Model the fold of this input.
Amino acid sequence: MTKFIDFRNSIALAMAGKSPWGSGGNNGGGNGGDDGPSDGGDNGDDKGGGPRNPWLPGGGGGKRRSANIEDIFKNRGPEGPRRGGGGPRGPNFRLPQGPGGKNWLPLAIGAVVVIGVLATSFHMVSPQERAVVKTLGNYTRTLEPGLRFSAPFPIETVDIEDVQGVRVIRIPDSNQQVKLILTGDQNLVDLSYIVRWNITDLEDYKFRLVDPAETVSEAAEAAMRAAVAEKVLDETFSGQGRASIELDVRERMQTTLDSYQAGVRVLGVEIEKADPPAEVVDAFRDVQVAEQNADAARNQAQGYAQQVLARAEGEAEAFNKVYEQYRLAPVVTRQRLYYETMERVLSKTDKTIVETGNVTTYLPLPEIRRRAQQTPPQASAPTAQEGQ
Done:
């Protein structure tokens, strides 16, 4: 029964806002016994001698009282209740305060806005560049070289492009790739070439085509296929044939791009490589060697024919001169021709004819000459060592 009475008194003390363990700082103010609270205990609580209630705002300073539901959730935020009192403390980030307790946040935001406005409003356009201005997504004007001004982003956006620089497109992208094109004589040739171009009208370049560089590449490939289809295989390998193809491709490309209003000028096309397919390169080289041999034999025959023709023309001219002399003096000319002919014929014989009677009729001079040529040279004299 005594224990039940003590437990009831403890509940009563808790309901009254007093600690069941007595006063904390004033031992004489509380009863501390089993008979319940006394007047001295109440006076000690009025002076704040008892322990603080952790559920009250600010730690329960002042007159001690019991906590209610409003005190418990008064300082509870989305991150939970604050600890250590109701002051503005905790892990929340704060900007440093200026003089007089002013906040720097508005000034920082204003500075960022001003810098952004200045950065997107002034534009330096180089002499080789032009810039297009879009207001709310629509084209409005083109900026010339110099320091130019526009409305800040996102009201106006400025796109700067180099309109004088030469742009290069390589087809195919790498020399390791194969680009086979059909020629007019139904042969395949592996071509790689370079296209050089620049911008003439920036407005058309930016707004007429979705991908201008891709359009230029496709136009170049179509023009190259059309030009090579009108040539035979040998023309694609010769220098003159290549020059003709390059000029034809450039004209075809320019016509196509002008029809698109692309704002692009084709500066030139250069063929870097023109080879047969890798599968037949050996056979093609054999054919080239045979053609070179045939050309060499043909050139040799032409040279011989020119020599024979020149000799015949010379003889014909000499005959014409002799004929003119024959018409003037037939007898003298006839005797001269007879002597010259006999001299030319008899100089090749092995016999000598002598008409004088005091000379031996036949002297085998050619036979003696022949024997002299066939006689081996005499042996050289022995040296002194061999004689010893």
